[in-house]
Design goal:
The complex is a heterodimer of chains A (about 400) and B (about 600). Chain A is α/β, with parallel strands linked by helices. Chain A has 14 helices and eight strands. Chain A is globular, with a radius of gyration of 21 Å. In chain B, strands 2-1-3-4 form a four-stranded parallel beta sheet, with helices on both faces. In chain B, helix 13 runs parallel beside helix 14 and helix 16 packs parallel to helix 18. The mean pLDDT of chain B is about 95. The chains are: A alpha/beta (about 400), B alpha/beta (about 600). Chains A and B meet through helix 3, helix 5, helix 6 and helix 13 of A and helix 14, helix 15, helix 24 and helix 25 of B.
Amino acid sequence: MKDLKHLIYFESLLESANNELVQQAQKDGKLAMGYTCFHIPEVLLNVDNCFSVRLRAPNTGSIDIATYYMSNYTCEYARALTERAIEGGYQFLDAMIGVDACSMMNRAMEHFELLQVNSKPKFFVTHTDMPYKITDYTLESYIKQMRLRVLDRMTEVYGVDTSDAAIRKAVAEHNEVCRIISEIAEMRKADNPVITGYEFHILCLVTYTCPKYLIIDKLRETLEELKQRKPDAKPQFRARVAIVGSEIDDPGLTKLIEGCGALIVSDRFCFGSTPGREVIELNDEEDALTQICRHYMEVAECARYISDEKVKQRRETSDRLAREYKADGIIYEQMKYCDYWGFERTLVSHVMAEEYGWPVLSIDRLYITAGSGQLRTRVQAFVESLEIKRIHKEEGKN
Amino acid sequence: MAKTPKFPNPSFWKYKDHMDIAAQVDNLKEIYGICADMAKEADWPAFGKHLLQGWKDFGNRVADEYNTFKGYSKDEQLDIILNGEKHLGRLYKSGSMATVRREWRGIRDTAYDFYEWGRMWYMLLSTFSRDLIPAANGMLYYRWYVSYFCCHSFMDKNTIGQRGRALRMSHELIYPIFRYVAENLVFLSKCDEKNGNCTELSKKVVLIDEMTMGQIMAGFPDLLGIPYQLLPVFLVSEIDQLTCVPYIDAVESYGLPSDTCPVPSSECGAIVIDALPHLGACFISSSMPCDGSTMASSYMGRRFPNLKTFHLCFPVRYLDEETVQCGAEDIKACIKFIEETTGSHWNWDAYFSAMKRFNQETAYELQKWEVNKTDYPQILGPCYELYRKWNYEMDGGTDPRIMKTSEKVNKLLLEAYRNKDEAWVGKMRHRAIVWSCPAHYYANFSNWAANCWGINVLVEMESLNFTKQLATDDKEEAMRDLARLYERMVMRRHTNGGYQNVVDELWRQCEAWNVNFIIMYQNVACKNMATLQGVLDEQGRERGMHMIWVEHDLMDPRTVSRRTMRDKVSNYMQTVMQEEPVDPSLVDFEDDVTW
């Protein structure tokens, strides 16, 4: 296929958390609100003169200092963020919106405070409590947390307008991005899609890490380009896979998987499009904050949600996506040392295989994986097994 | 004045079992087959040789002990006869599961110790005889069951080196824990579908996630709350550290990464190999204390899909008072769930009575702390530490018999304080605190540290929990208090809700207890604590604390053995402190398989 016009530019934006669009927005007088977790409604960090930056630590090398602080048996994403923060890589942030959803990420945010990694006089770190299940009282608590610990802090420290009108404006801008990404995502359902999993991952990552008002034009242009794009006459991929699991902000991983012949057609992971790029439908009867919180609780696919209906929802979503996007198999992945996804991946990779009948590859991986030969071998073997299954199916064997 | 109801509810014992005799016969045949195979495959000549060697070793040891004793001066001999032996490492033998003999504690204390040994046996036998057949039959189904036979060894281990009032207090404290274990073992066996199959009682059983506090059951005196995995997994591993190894292996073979905490891993492994009895009207799962435990509940759901489950989830940022109501509402929802599932009704009177007892027990606990903060700490060692944890977490005022124990122990405590007793006679060198996830029950660590190096653990992190008197008249506030209590459950109180709860809190406690030694347990799989190791280390050094980092992996001794754990302390004491041990025989000994 012909290269996408802006792909290299998008890739360059992902080379640094403090990329040129972030710098541009700050020159425009905007405030950078850092966050890491889906549980924080991204849209709330885009009100008034603020913009959200979902933190990554691209080009991570040594994480020795963070390992000293946080030990070597802990999530590398959390450690990479801490290391980058100590190096001064997040000095550009005006606030860090933390969640106490998983212990290691929470500790990473606490190190931002403890080690005073940001010297801006008004910089603050806030911590929020997250629900484990959806009930009326957990929703109420969630709303309260977002109001008191996020929005009110932004108003107190920076005078940000967090009124209902301001939130609705942010939702409108957010939805526009979501519509574009969703439309592009739909293209992956085609038998011979015009976009690769890697390209889609890059587009998604850009929407999470750049100010939306500065990126939206290029996203629109890319959408139009894709509509005209001609797929390769003969697909280069040997199998189609859905990915389900924990945080992936490293496009090197998607590149590695696709390099083994597996086209990624569905991305059910943090920093992916499901969840995260669903349009938020607001009505006028209820305040926007309540509706946003409810939306995030309902679409969340985080393994931390413990209640039976959410456990079921996660399995159903994986199955639905894999079917809708015509995947041949599912890759369940987890960031190494992640407790939530460690337990979830183990159990559900059995469930998906035994109850839903999906071929499953179950992997744990490091934060930066591009150079992992071991992982490459496992994906190659999985692709081969999918091919064999397809051949057997075509031949009428089991 | 209303009569205090009997505990446990006497009706629980009276329900009839519906044992499937044919299934028991089949199981016996299977057991017989296994035994026959073992007998067939056994190397009998080697076994005979081993037996003979054991007798030779016994003879040599007796001769050695006799000669050693003979070599002492008359005064030393008299001291040993009256006050007990000094070299406790002699009790251990490489490769042996039991100690070579019981400890000689001096005439008076040895006699008392034997009395307690007999009292324990009497309690165990009388409890088991209340429904003997299913209780004994449990051994034929569950391998963990057999490990409870080591409970006397556990008692001996936890009181090693103790004398006088300290010994008495330890025995008083450990006894109710074993009574609780024995009673619940019988109930588990009685209700287990594979065993006693007592359906009437099973309908009254509310299974509770083992790390979840039991106070909620105080409002349901007609129901039986059992911490489900406590007996098959957690508590038994304290008694016999090797029990959970097959569970961990099973779940890791299933695919679970080995970096997860062994507690939820073992729970899930027990599910994988079907080591949990089948019973109960419903299950209360929980998000506590940490991420791994949260996830273990989905394994329960997979194994027992028909067991109705309520997920009790509390806010993590518990210091934020804005979150308390959410916790209180979850408790109300849980109560409603239990009512709907069992047909029972929440009884405020029963709840308030239990919480009044719990408040009184908390007051007793604070008294213990006050004494231990002085220059004459009195109540030390694993029995006290375990009791505190059990009373706070499992009993929670529900058992009226515990009041007597608390009263008796605190009477002894004050007597000992007035008398300026030494908790470990002649072994009080350093004042220490234990921090992070403790492993000292598996390793009998605080006892060993005192006996070997004179390091006296005055308090451990897990004891320092919620001490507020709970509301016992205002119903709404009572729910909020219960939420506050649950949010501050053992471990969670410190490891959750922000670093201040474990870092700043440590320095505050060091000052309050006047300690300068910190036994810093480092569970290699505890992410909540591991992610603060650098900060703890830095701030500890700034404060001039002696921080001894002791790596461990809780109930998986293959990662870090007890001997390796002890070596960390011994190395520190020898190289940094340049000290000689109080008891050199305890510096290095092998106890890899010892109960």
